[in-house]
Specification:
With 272 residues, the protein is mainly alpha-helical. It has helices spanning 2-29, 32-38, 45-60, 66-86, 88-96, 105-108, 118-124, 131-140, 150-159, 165-178, 184-192, 201-206, 213-221, 229-239, 245-251, 257-270. Helix 8 (131-140) packs parallel to helix 10 (165-178) and helix 14 packs parallel to helix 16.
C-alpha cells in the first residue's frame, strides 16, 4: 500500500512536467492550438486577481515595512511565474525558431532583434491570456520588424473595452510604430473620436510623420482637445506647420505645463 501511495504521489508531483512534455510533442508535430489547451496556469484567475490587487496596494504605499517589502517581492515572483506558466506554449514555439525567453517581457527588454518571432507573437495576440501578458505581446510587437502588420493590432485596439485605457494606449503606441500609409485613414477616424480618450495620444503624434494637408488640418483641430493637445503640438512641430503657428503661440501661454513645454519646442522647429 505504501508503495502505491509513493507512486501516486510521484505521478501527482510530475503531472505538470508530463503535460508540458506531451504539449511540446504537439508543438513539434504542428498541433499548436491543441498544445495550448494542455498548458494551464497553476494559479486560478481569482487568486491571480487577489495577488495583483495586493501587489498594487503595496506599490502605492508611500512607506513599506521590511515585511511588506518581502511580501512585495514574493508577490512579484508569483506573478512572473504565473505569466511564464500561462505563456508556456508561446515560449515553446519561440524556442523552435531560436528565440529563448522566460516571459514575453524578456523580448520587451531586449535590444536584440527577433524577426522570426513576429508571426508567432501575432498568432498569440488573441489568446485568452492575462492582461499583463497581452500587454507584453503588444509591446514586443512595437518594433520595426513588425512594420506593416498594424491590421492585427488595429483589430485588438477595437476589441479592447474603452475602459481599459492603459492597454489601449499600449496598443495605440504599437500601431503608431508599425503603421504604413494604408493605415492612415483608420488613424484619422480614431484620433477624431473623443471617446477613445488618452489612448489616442501616440496615434496623434504619429500623424506628424504623415505630412499631408489632411493630417495637418486634423492635428490643428486637435489643438482644442486637451487630452491629446500636447501630442498634436509636437506632431505639428515635426511638420514645421506654418498654419498652426499662431494657435501654438497662444497655447504657449497655457496653464498646462506640458502644453507650454511642447509649444516652445514646436515653435523652435517651425521658426519664423
Amino acid at each position: 500500500m505504501n508503495e502505491l501511495q509513493n507512486i501516486t504521489q510521484y505521478i501527482l508531483m510530475k503531472k505538470q512536467d508530463i503535460i508540458h512534455s506531451f504539449a511540446r510533442i504537439l508543438v513539434l508535430l504542428g498541433f499548436k492550438k491543441i498544445h495550448r489547451c494542455f498548458v494551464k496556469n497553476d494559479i486560478t484567475n481569482n487568486e491571480l486577481k487577489k495577488i495583483q490587487q495586493r501587489r498594487s496596494e503595496l506599490l502605492k504605499a508611500e512607506f513599506k515595512s521590511e515585511e511588506e517589502m518581502k511580501e512585495l517581492e514574493v508577490l512579484s515572483n508569483k506573478l512572473e511565474e504565473a505569466a511564464a506558466n500561462e505563456t508556456k506554449g508561446l515560449r515553446d514555439e519561440l524556442k523552435n525558431v531560436g528565440v529563448y525567453i522566460y516571459t514575453v517581457w524578456d523580448l520587451v527588454n531586449t535590444k536584440k532583434p527577433y524577426p522570426q518571432a513576429i508571426d508567432i507573437l501575432i498568432d498569440h495576440l488573441n489568446e485568452d491570456y492575462d492582461e499583463g501578458n497581452i500587454e507584453g505581446i503588444v509591446r514586443a510587437l512595437s518594433v520595426k520588424e513588425a512594420k506593416g502588420r498594424a491590421a492585427v493590432l488595429i483589430k485588438k485596439y477595437e476589441e479592447t473595452p474603452k475602459v481599459k485605457d492603459n492597454l489601449r494606449w499600449v496598443i495605440g503606441n504599437a500601431i503608431a510604430t508599425v503603421m504604413t500609409l494604408k493605415d492612415v485613414d483608420w488613424i484619422y477616424q480614431t484620433v477624431l473620436d473623443k471617446s477613445n480618450g488618452g489612448s489616442r495620444s501616440q496615434l496623434v503624434y504619429a500623424l506628424g510623420t504623415v505630412k499631408t494637408e489632411k493630417s495637418e488640418e486634423i492635428l490643428i483641430s486637435l489643438l482644442d482637445d486637451p487630452e491629446v493637445a500636447p501630442q498634436a503640438i509636437a506632431a505639428l512641430g515635426m511638420m514645421k506647420s506654418k498654419k498652426a503657428k499662431d494657435k501654438i503661440v497662444l497655447l504657449n501661454q497655457s496653464k498646462n505645463s506640458l502644453i507650454r513645454l511642447e509649444s516652445k519646442k514646436a515653435l523652435k522647429k517651425i521658426g519664423d
